[in-house]
């Protein structure tokens, strides 16, 4: 929803983190900043899914204070390495330097702490959601600086020829193969629930992160449940 109050509500509800979706969500970087400010003030880490594997956008969102980034549609180790380089300062990367004045460093008031922790505490997640990503899953996961692989079952199912069928047995077999490759590389793996696989099932299968729920869905489902409840009382429906 690109709304700071929505992010704050989710943060105060007790989620481990919030993911601000700048790939499919409507917000710009300023809206993302407002959401990060709200979530972080409530003690909840704020991560951002960026629109694309773009070095300029990654630089800007990290300067703005994102504590983690998710890069969509990573299909090769080279793409993964480019994303990591965009997140790191020279000599380990190519990120432009403005840390004396950026939000991430407290606008320069927390420089020693920021410079010490900027690499170690930044979470970099690569999404595997294409056939190419599946083919190169082991190499992507093994890329230095990639902390977690996140499977995108909806896009992946479409790319495999099973549009809007993330629970198709063929798709789940591919996902299991990706999970095996990621674990073999010693990295963590995440995913979203689908109709046939809720959070409990996914954790039992060994997934380390499950992103479950969205502000729009919370509002939609709550509103529809309230309408149904009132309709049951009044007989109107």
In a nutshell, what does this entry contain?
The protein is an alpha/beta fold and 237 residues long. The chain has 2 domains: 1-49, no CATH class; 70-210, Phosphoenolpyruvate-binding domains (TIM Barrel), CATH 3.20.20.60. The chain has helices at residues 4-13, 29-41, 55-63, 77-87, 111-117, 131-135, 137-142, 153-159, 169-184, 199-204, 215-234; strands at residues 18-21, 46-49, 68-71, 123-128, 148-151, 188-191, 209-210.
> How is the biggest beta sheet arranged?
7 strands, parallel
Q: Average the pLDDT over all residues and give the rounded result.
A: 98
Helical content stands at 40-55%
- CATH-level-2 architecture of the largest domain: Alpha-Beta Barrel
Strand order, main sheet: write it out.
1-2-3-4-5-6-7
- Helix-strand sequence: HEHEHEHHEHHEHHEHEH
Query: What is the CATH homologous superfamily assignment of the largest domain?
Result: Phosphoenolpyruvate-binding domains
Radius of gyration: 19 Å
- Helix and strand content put the structural class at alpha/beta
Q: Describe the global form.
A: globular
| Count of separate structural domains | 2
Describe this structure in words.
By secondary structure, the chain is an alpha/beta fold. The chain folds into two domains: 1-49, no CATH class; 70-210, Phosphoenolpyruvate-binding domains (TIM Barrel, Alpha-Beta Barrel). Helix content is 46%, strand content 12%. It has helices at residues 4-13, 29-41, 55-63, 77-87, 111-117, 131-135, 137-142, 153-159, 169-184, 199-204, 215-234, and strands at 18-21, 46-49, 68-71, 123-128, 148-151, 188-191, 209-210. Strands 1-2-3-4-5-6-7 form a seven-stranded parallel sheet. The longest helix has 20 residues, at 215-234. It is globular. The mean pLDDT is 98. Keywords: Lyase, Metal-binding.
